[in-house]
Amino acid sequence: MEFLKAILYGIVEGITEWLPVSSTGHLIIVQGFFPFGKGVSPAFPEMFNYVIQLGAIFAVIVLFWKKLWPFKMPDKNANFLAVDSGIFKKDQWILWFKVLVATLPSTLGLIVDDKIDALMYAENGDPNLAGLIVISAALVLYGVLFIVIEKMNKNRALKINSTADITYKTALIIGFFQLLAIVPGTSRSGATIIGALIIGVARPAAAEFSFFMAIPTMFGVSFLKIVQFLSESSFASNELVILGIGMVVSFLVSMVCIKKLMEYVKKHDFSFFGYYRIVLGIVLVAYFLLKP
């Protein structure tokens, strides 16, 4: 049963990680109905929820490999150490520097991340009353923002139509919006996309840059969560299998979801996700109020 739950969680993660709808809110609902059993250690579920994101990240790397890989095959006479040797892809290096600038603000979030979790979650991993209110409020608030911003941008001429047009200043501003995602229910992709839309980035470029920002952010968070888990416990063999299954499923589902999302935003705006977030926030409150 734990393996089946890992598959279910992987599907939910692969879909909701990239859509601006809060993977946290969805995982809370799913895990409320299908929690991990006694076959895993108490610290495992929280770590699992973070590290499963690595599967989704690998999907971004695979899909955007040509845009992200900064090296070319070297010429046999090229000096590998020379910057002008032709083996470095200038545009890709510039993109990575912008991504790193954008992720700098999120390092501030690592300082308070554990404190926020302690305030909002009970020992069994379920949100307490404060957590429920914050998550639901974040879902609704950012849902409204998506609807309002899309209406404002309807007749607005956007100057940033590709990730190449994003400046270092723009990247840093988007990075500060990502910092808002330390509040559960906000959605990392939702916060960064909203920030990008506000400052005039076109939808496809906003979504794509959000994907790229997730790579260093999620690798860093996952590494810290694994270290924290190992400091308190150790992996049992079944836990490694469960984590592996979740990551593989989230990778496969993310491959499909990212492609579909990029096709969607080329023709539609994000208003639908705004309405969906509002409904989800209401459903989340109702679920916990009715939960025995």
Write the layout of secondary structure elements.
Layout: H1 2-16, H2 23-33, H3 44-51, H4 53-63, H5 65-68, H6 90-103, H7 106-120, H8 129-152, H9 168-178, H10 188-198, H11 203-232, H12 237-265, H13 271-290
Helix pairs in contact: 1-2, 1-12, 3-11, 4-11, 4-12, 6-9, 6-11, 8-10, 8-13, 9-10, 10-11
Structural features, described:
By secondary structure, this protein is mainly α. It has 13 helices and no strands. The radius of gyration is 20 Å and the shape is globular.
Brief sketch in words of this structure:
The protein is mainly α.
Largest sheet: none
Beta-strand content: under 5%
What is the helix content?
A: 55-70%
Number of helices: 13
SS-derived structural category: mainly alpha
Rounded radius of gyration (Å): 20 Å
The separation of the N and C termini measures 23 Å
Q: What is the count of β-strands?
A: 0
Secondary-structure element order, N to C = HHHHHHHHHHHHH
Query: How would you describe the shape?
Result: globular
Q: Give the integer mean of the pLDDT values.
A: 85
Count of separate structural domains: 1
The parts where pLDDT drops under 50 for at least 5 residues are none
Q: What labels would you give this structure?
A:
292 residues, mainly alpha
